[in-house]
Specification:
Oligomer: single chain
Number of helices: 5
Shape: elongated
Strand content: 5-15%
Radius of gyration: 17 Å
Strand order of the largest sheet: 2-1-3
Distance between the termini: 42 Å
Structural class: mainly alpha
Order of helices and strands: HHHHHEEE
Largest sheet: 3 strands, antiparallel
Number of strands: 3
Helix content: 55-70%
């Protein structure tokens, strides 16, 4: 049942986030080879989304493959998680530099969730045991990572701000957070960057 929930969550990531960098509200960075502060967090949301989709495919090979396939999948998962952690750390530092602590905390939590997935994979590899014994915990950790990513990015694509307005992550109240979410955004439009009490995205 947990694996089915994970597949559903991965499907939601594919459906909800691929247009993050193409929405009318935000400038599309797909022609840039490197991110800029003005393109965040959409640029990094799109990068993480791509890696999460890849992670789902790699997990399938890890769980269902033979010994050789599991070894290849383990190495691939390590690289994928390392990419997610690098992206999250870069944006974490960006929001720290901007003096927006909620943004720093949001991407720090994403980085920690990715690290927790890696810890499960490493323990399984070091024990040289069947992945079947660790598949439930792996499912849970990946699902926690996806859930937190959706908590950060959900609603960003659909936001349509007027010219001159900023996109803004307004923190959700703790009592409004569903299970599995440590922090969550409600994406709104604000006239002034200083009006954003969470962390801001691009100006339209």
């Amino acid at each position: 049942m947990t694996f089915i929930r994970l597949i559903i969550a991965l499907s939601l990531v594919v459906v909800l986030v691929p247009a993050i960098v193409e929405g009318k509200t935000h400038r599309s960075p797909r022609h840039r080879s490197t991110p800029t502060a003005a393109s965040e967090p959409g640029y990094s949301f799109a990068l993480i989304d791509k890696q999460l989709t890849l992670l789902g495919q790699q997990q399938l090979a890890l769980v269902e493959g033979d010994s050789a396939a599991r070894g290849d999948a383990t190495r691939s998962i390590r690289r994928t998680l390392a990419r997610i952690e690098r992206v999250a750390l870069r944006v974490e530092r960006l929001y720290q530099h901007r003096g927006e602590p909620y943004g720093r905390r949001m991407f720090r939590v994403l980085r920690i969730r990715a690290s927790e997935v890696g810890s499960v994979v490493e323990r399984s590899a070091n024990q040289k045991s069947s992945m079947a014994s660790a598949s439930q915990q792996l499912n849970d950790r990946i699902l926690a990572l996806i859930t937190q990513f959706q908590a950060a990015s959900g609603g960003f694509t659909a936001l349509r701000c007027e010219r001159g307005q900023f996109s803004c992550c307004k923190p959700k109240r703790k009592q409004d957070l569903p299970p599995g979410e440590s922090l969550a955004c409600r994406w709104i439009c604000v006239k002034n960057a200083s009006s954003c009490n969470g962390f801001r995205g691009p100006q339209n």
